[in-house]
Structures are given as C-alpha cells and as structure tokens.
Please model this.
Amino acid sequence: MMSDAAAQSTPAKKPGSTGSLREQMWRYRHFYLFISPFFFLFAVFGLYPLLFSLYLSLVQWDGLTSPKWVGLQNFTTLLRDEQFYRAIWNTILIGVYHFPPMFILAFVFAVILNQQWVKLRAFWRAAVFMPAITPMVVIAFVFFILFSTETGLVNYLYTGALGLLGIEAAGVPWLQNGTWAKITVSILLVWRWTGYNMVIMLAGMQGIPGDMYEAATIDGASRWQQMRYLTIPMMKPTFIFITIMSLIGTVYMFDEVFVLTNGGPGDATTNFGLFLFQQSFQDFRFGYASAAAYSVALVVFVMSLVIFRVGKKGE
Amino acid sequence: MVPTILLVGLLVLAIVLTWLPYVGLAKPPAGKRQVEVWSWTNAADALSGVSEEFEAEHPDLDIYINKNGSNLQTRLLLALSAGSGIPDVSQLQEREAAKYTRTGRLTDLTDWASPYREQFVPAFWDSCVYEGRMYALPWDVGPCAVYYKRWIFEEYGLDPWTIETWDDFVAMGVELKERSGGKVRMLPLSEANLIEMLQILMQQNGGNVFDVQGRIVLDSPQNRQVLALMRQMLDTGINADLTPYSPEWEASYQTDNVACYPNAVWAVAALKQAAGDTAGKWGVFPMPAFEKGGIRTSNLGGSVLIIPRESEVAEEAWSFIEFANCTVEGQIEQFREQGLFPALITAYDHPYFDEKDPFFADQAVNKVFAQDFEKLPTMTRTADWNEAQAYLGRSLTRWAETRQDNGAYLRGVAEALGRKVVREVVPYEELAAQREGTDESGPDDE
Model:
C-alpha cells in the first residue's frame, strides 16, 4: 500500500528533460513555491527544535542562565539515574498492561461494526471513537469519581457484588497503591484509545477487496476460516502500524498520567513522558531532559524497525 | 459574492475578538502605571486585599493581581526564558526560591530590603539570599505545632501539655494506645507517605540535605536522629496509617481514632472545614522538642515574592511588596483575611495574636504557632531541592518496609542524589565531628 502511494506521488520523469539541476528547479519554480510552506514550517517547528535539542543534550541549561557545555556528561549521568530506569520500567509495565486488551477490543469492535447487519453503524462507530476526542481533564475528573477508594462507583459495585456472595471485602486502592494505580491508568488508556485504533482497523478491513471474500466463500471457506486465513493476514500492515503508534504513544504519553495521578503514588505511574516534563519544566534540567529524550528516541526508533521487520517476515 | 464578504467579515471579527482581551489587559487605566503580580489561590486574594489600600495611597499606580494556577512556576520560567510576558512581581514557594535567586534574572533587592533584616524570620531571610545579595522577600511562613482533640485526652486522663520532648510524645502515645485498648493512635503517619513528616522533623532538628557550599550532607547525626524517631513512631504502633489529606484522613478529624496531628498553621483551614461537630473541642500545643529545652517549632511550606530583572516598574513593585510584607498592618491583614502567617517577627506582638479562637475552645492558638519561630534553623535549598525531595520521597517507603538501617539508607540516597545532580557527598564522620564542634561553640553556627 505504501509503495503504491509513493509511486503515484513521484512525478514521472520527462523523457526529453535536459539541463542542470538549477535549470530544472527554475523551470519548476512554481511547483516548488507551492510546496514551500510545508518545508518552511517544518524547518521552523520540526527541524530547528530537533537540532536545538541535540545541542541541549550536550549542555547543562536551566532556561535562565547561559548553557554550560558538558559534552557527554548528561548521557553518563542518565545511565546511572535510578529515577530514569524506574520511569522506563513504569512505561513498559503500563504498555504491557494496556496494549493487549486494547488491541483485542479494537479488533473485536472493528469486526462487529464492519458487519452489514449491524444497525446504526455510524452511530456506534462514533460512540466508540468518542473517548479519543474527549478532553483529558474531563476524563480524569470522571475517572477520579469512578475510582475513588471510599466513594467510587467501581469499588461500590465491587464490594457490593462480593457482599451479595457473602464476602466482606475492602475497596481496591485504585489510585493509592502503586500497582493498582498503573492498572487504573491502563484502564483509562484502554477506554480512551480503543476507539481510535478501531477506526484504523476498520479502514484496514475495508481496504480488503470484497472479491477475495467472494472467492473464499465459493471455495467453501467458513466465516472462521475467512477470518483466520484472509482477514488477519491482510490486516498485518495495519497491525504493525497500530503497534508502532502505540509504542510511541505509550513512551511519550503525558496528559493521561499528568492529570489522573501526576505520576503518583510515589513515582509508580511516572512514565517516560512525565519524567521528561518533570526534568525539564519542574526541575529546569533542559540539557539532561534532552539527553534522555534523544536516548529513548533512539531506542524507540530501533524497536520500531524491529517490529516492522518482524511484521514483514513471511510476506 | 455575499457569502465571501460574510466570510471575510467573520474572519476579521474573529481575529479582533481573539486579540481584544489582550488589548484590554495590557492597558492600565489612563494615567496610571501598572504593576502586574502573579500569585495563586488565597495568597492572591490576600494581596488583592492589601492592594486596595496601597492604591489609595498611590493613585498613580494600578496593582493588577493575576491569579495564576498551580503551574505558575512553569509559566514564569517560560516567560523569563522567552523574555516576554514577564510579571513585575511573582510569588514563589520558599523551597523553590533558590532555583531563581542564583540565575541573575531577578532584581537585586538588597539595598531596599536590608533595613528590615532583623524583623524577618532568619531561616526565611536566608532562603532569599544568594552569594550575599538578596533577590526575594519572605512573605508567609508555615510554622508547625500539634493540633489535638481535647476530648480524647480528657477521656483517658492525659495532659498533652506535659509533653516537652518527642520521647514524651511517643511515651504518651503508647500510654494512650494502651488505655484505649489499641483504639486511639497518637498521630497519623503512613509508611506510604513519610516525606512531610521527614521535612518537618529535619528542619526542626537542624538537619539538611545540602550545606551552604552546595555539598550533600544528608547522612548527618541530625537526620539519623530524625529517622530514629520516625522508626520509633512506626514501631511502637502509635501511628494511624492514613495518607495525608486523603478522604480517610479528613474523615478522621471527627473520629476518636487519632488524637493529634503535627502540622503547619495553614492546615487549620481544611481542619475547620472538615471538623463538623468537633468544632470547639480542639486545641494546639507546641511541637515537642528533640531535647529538653530545644526549639519547639518547625516549618512546612511558605512563600516569597520576587521582582524579575526585566520589570520596568521595579521600584514601584518594591514599594508594593514592602507595603504588604514589611509592615505589621499589611502582614496582619493578610493573616486575618486569608490565613497567611507573617514572616515578619514584629507582627507576632500584634494584639491579633492574643485573639481567642472558639474553634480551639477559646485558646489563642496563633501564639503557639509563633513560639520559638524566630529560632527556626535554616534549610539550605539549592536549585536541586525538588530532586532531593523526589529521591527521599520515593525511597522512604522502602526504608520503612524493609527496616533499612538509618545510616545506610541516608548514605545510599546521598550517593544516588550526588550522582544525579553532580555534587560532592560529605561523609557521616565529618558531619558528626562538625556537630560536636558546633555544640561547644554554640548553636548559632550553621
């Protein structure tokens, strides 16, 4: 799919075109003019911050006094920073907790809402997608109320249900205990991002040509076999895309934890995104934060490549 | 054609409307110079109150109090860094002042403020000084004492006023627990959240994280003593396992499970709100001392005011904060109206401190909070204070749960912190020797 799109957007080479690069550029100047806004904006808001942050990773800078060159010291400090490792570990745990259920749910919803017989499909799709566009502050407020240990609806239902079975149980400390807080954050992530991933999966499913299913039906494949041998293999590029996007999203996630737990209790839900914020905008360690950002970006890049390669295998 | 005109019109209108508030804000009333002040919550309201009187005395000035949210610090950093949108005065947490005073981006207040030196709490004054120059002015402070439930102590026949030291406090806690059959605990203290108690006790005992040279002095005799006390509180089981300010904590104000709450003066607002029927049955006694005759106070929280260097009305800004903070009337008004406890020692003699509070069974509690406060030891904050807090706050729970040795724990944190913020760590032996030296030469040696 990617290569098709790329092929279409590359202008076909004119067979008779001659002259130096400069002449060609002059000849096509109007086109360059039309695409220039992107490059201008990219240079200002993309490239410049990228390079500036690379420079920052080699200095000590508090944003107020002049930067002090320290070479690679930020990176060596990072390697010995317990806080950094804990942030990374929290990120991994939250990723492991929320990604599988979110992925499966998104797929199930996508399959269901792709069926012809489902009524009001547009409505259901919008409803499932809604959390992705709801402001985080509103969500956090509702989650606070739902997951309060003493007065929350979740614990009320939980203890109530156990009470019916004759079991006296204390409420779950959803936001007070480190492990539970990670789970609460993961629940929020599943709730918030399932719809978004469902939409991507829906698009992927609708990209599978209908005649393939026709052919499969004629060949006598059952619905299950169609799913197993047709839908899932054809969805592979979508799955890879979602996995990589979720990886990036989890590592740089910020507002969910910032608003719901502010990284607490202790630092149990401080993920990498929040760690960066704390280092830079609370502790004024911009150089150090840049070094951390560059190191992790490198790891994320390599991991994305690995996921991509593994996903491509067997095609 | 009409739709196009309509669209253009709407666009222009939208742009104008977007900018209108800024145009409106930027312009002070005609003929007046504006002093913009950034502050938060009730502190902002306190300044608003004082600003009216100030404006009456200075008709050429317009004090604009910008009540900023909790991220004031980040916004101030960005404004200072960008060099635009900078206020003329800003509030800062006392513990975070050091991060700004060393930057050279604040107005040097030394010449203006020095005449008031003797009148302010020294520990807070010290937090405003960097390399001998003053870059901030103390505003409000958070003296600590022990809030207690009179009815509990009466019921079990104990008198909290006989408590002089922390040892007495723990002993009474054990007694209270026994007499009540284990029902009543002396104080709330949760293994999951020990950092506030550590801060309070550390400051009272003259412990520090950093010394004036910026070295890490965490593993000191003072701090080991603090941890030993906290372990004693946990081991004797005189504590109730309550997370500070959680709903359970607030609910405990009305129950018989917890007898007292060592806390700062500003906690009184939340206490009064949550106390319900128990209003009028409370009391406050001074913090127990570490040794007999030791100081019976500590501090938690408090803030300062700064003037950014870029302010074009620095002199006017100073005259406003001088009016608010360096006069007994200004400080008392802010205390009375919004509960900001004065950093100005001379204010403690004001009759307001003798006023009886019906909530505390007509006890004049402010006198208790003011006791010994001018003797409060200084905390050296440095720019890395937040980092130190993070390291301590996170590891204290493990210290409690694994019953780690106090010295080993402090040394471990000191070393981890030293690696992170690249600072020298002073070993225990050196600090112990130093302390013996100071004990002989008198307590005023920092």
